[in-house]
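Hey, I'm writing a tutorial for new members on how sequence and structure tokens pair up, and I'd like a real worked example in the thread rather than a made-up one. If someone can provide the structure for the chain below, I'll link this post from the tutorial.
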Amino acid sequence: MFKDITEPFTADLPPDQFVQAAMQWHFSPDTGSPFWTKRAAELPFDPLRDIRTWADLDLFPDVSEEWRDVPVDALVPVGIDKSGWDFQVFDSGGTTGRPKRIVESRSRRDGVRWVSKILDEHKVPGEGDGHWLHIGPTGPHIVGRSIGLLAQLRRTFCHYIDFDPRWVKQRAKQQQTGDVAQYVQHILDQAMDVLRTQPVSVLFATPPVLEAIAARDDILDLVQSRIRGIIWAGTSISAETLHVLETELFPNAAIVGLYGNTMMGIAPQRPRTAGQGEQGCAFIPCHPYSSVRLVDPEEPTREVGYGERGQARISLLSRDLLLPWTLERDSALRIEPTSAYPQDAVADVRPLASGHAPSVVEGVY
């Protein structure tokens, strides 16, 4: 039986109350998902009684591996009114194996609205100021929908050049670099057609695609003359390469990075301040729904200090989905909050070089 509880917990709650409200929602039989209400009986603690703070989430096991196989119907909270049911299913990129699957209704869209406000701070073109071009995965990956929603919020069109990151990673693992290079050129050929015929001012692309654009004069000329906002995401990028993109190749465009994945959502680049190095790129998760802790790979419950590198451990507490925590394939530097952004930031994100994580092939996404 579905009940209509529109907003079970909101961002204005104090941190501990926020966590407790999330536990009430996800573990009460009248509102929680079948996955979590069934799982509660198997846990060696009572989530409704024992989970009071963010730190208490350490009591949970990492269940994300189960999301490669669990029927996605079991992840939908029954407290969401069925008459307004608008869930979709999305896959992870499969970087470390078979894809994991999530369900999503409204929560990520709320996060996209927050990201749009941060893009305004970066001076990314907005309403009435040109179309968007997304060069990256679309379905079954959530990134394509998120970029499209951003464009829609800013009342403009989003053009799509789709690619399959799983195929590219497979070819890269097999050392078929020629196939990967040919595929990238196929993507750029399609992008050329859109750039020549449509008033595109904002481009979404991965760092390898941006580097491929820089190496091809015809499309580079179009991007340099027309694009005034570049959003990059999907793979790591060195500070040196980012500096070249910002100062030499695309100096007339606002360049903004996004960190994130299917499981945690989007963490946009924090607007730079005078105290932050000019080449710095610090990412902030959507507070308080999404959290990124950087932990010692040898002791995943121990958070590293500011300025230290650790393994990304993410938590997601939203109306639509509960993921208490999972260790990610990334490592990053922990960055202190600012007065404008009270959550920890992460920087210099790169694949984890450790025996504690599967080998990562980034490919083009």
